[in-house]
Fold these 2 entries.
Entry 1:
Amino acid sequence: MKVPTLYIIVPCYNEEAILPSTHRLLSDKLTQLTSTGKISSESRIMFVDDGSTDQTWNLIKEFHDLNPAVCGIKLSHNFGHQYALLSGMETACKKADAIISIDADLQDDIGVMAEMLEKYEAGADVVYGVRKNRSSDTFLKRFTAQFFYKMMKKMGVDTIYNHADYRLMSHRALKAMLKYRERNLYLRGIVPLLGYPNAQVYYDRKERLAGESKYPLKRMLHLAMDGITSLSAYPLHLLLMMGFLFLVVAIIIFIYVIYRFAIGEVVPGWASLMLSIWFVGGCILLGLGIVGEYIGKIYIEVKGRPRYEIEEELP
């Protein structure tokens, strides 16, 4: 196998506090991998500025001027992490034999990149970076993450437990993934659908060096909703099952009312009636909300708008 050209894709949003450290560490890693013959000298670090409002893009331009191994993309506004990552992948696909995607905070261990490349050379088209454990997370974050992965598996979605967006992809796998044209984008669920040979490397997640996390609870919930609605119709099937359940309950209540009437007893009822109305009404609204979520996604998809716009590119 020839020495591969590797592109490291780094999506950034308001990362001026941490970007100098990220650039230094990734440049050192790229030099190390090149000097040991793991990758070619044409390999690059590609920073993708997802519409930052701070000095992120100016820093990227400075890195590009000083370091020939740095290239960059500036999106016209904040499209979101998944689209920023996708824009880097599509651009790098023209030149790279393989790409590694990693977040700018470098909490994912860059030390396992050499191991990723070894598994790629052994025939894996996708190499997932997987956290060994979540001991560094808060109880709430650990509980919600575990619940989400179990729920996705229950719904028939093939996801890699404790894997985010730290992965290596071969050119072949990348080209196959780019055929998926949906706007409701959840890369962590799409990549396993490709079916190409894959492997995993394990690492301990580090603390963030500087700045704040760009994935607060609100964004995590939004990403989870995108993952569920883009890859599974199970919630709609669940609504159908709930409808049958309520029908059975209604028949049982009807039989009970007829029985009480036949034996001459007054059916006590205001409290139970109101409770039933509120319960069923809440379930109806919940069901309408789930259906509405899917309809909204369809509405966005059929418009066929571009998923992102590149304002400036540094080759």
Entry 2:
Amino acid sequence: MERLAGRVALITGAASGIGKATAERLAAEGAAVMITDVDDESGKAVAGGLSARGREAAYLHLDVVSEQEWQQAVEGTVGQLGGLDILVNNAGVRGEPEPVEETSLADWDRSIAVLQTGVFLGMKWAAPALLKSGHASVVNISSVFGSSGGFGTSPAYHAAKGAVRILTKTAALRWAKRGIRVNSVHPGFIDTPLLHADPAGNPADSARFHQAILDVTPMGRLGRPEEVAAGVAYLASDEAAFVTGSELYIDGGYMAR
């Protein structure tokens, strides 16, 4: 069943991981998808793969911290695909591993810019096009760390994801009677390249981290990007027509502990 036939979606950070899986799922549901990312080679490959399977897809470079690039991405999506009905704010960076007293201002600013300000800019610049849709949906990818203290580290990541959670609700109230629904998705530990990145280059520390996250996940495994994409597809569809300002946790039971 193509629940999103005739809809146009813009997805950030769609060159890999959750963003790629979301693009593939929304396309399978019938949406035309605009892949955006800063990884141009991988992003073009995702769009090309969808096109080869008969789906309508295109790619645009988008650094979500740039207001000018957001404006160009929205205009490009409307111009190439004919409108905008679905916005998925997914672009991300891995959280800094230090506790608050050891986190540098540069690391703090970087995380806030991508994870928080990027979501704000996306909703700001997409709003005019979404308001013309009549059945628009914004899905902001937050995290279980947007609602919990996690391991007591990565303060900027937690702060940004928590801000996305509340920003989602604020926008949902603003647009509740204007045809735009806004919801947040809160993944747990998902098997993506970002999760497996090891910025410190220490395999032993990486192994301990991965065991720790399995230990605190009641289902005892990592989630799959496709499982998050399924939740996004539901929120983007008319089946969620009475759902706005809500939080969807896809976390293997992490938040139930």
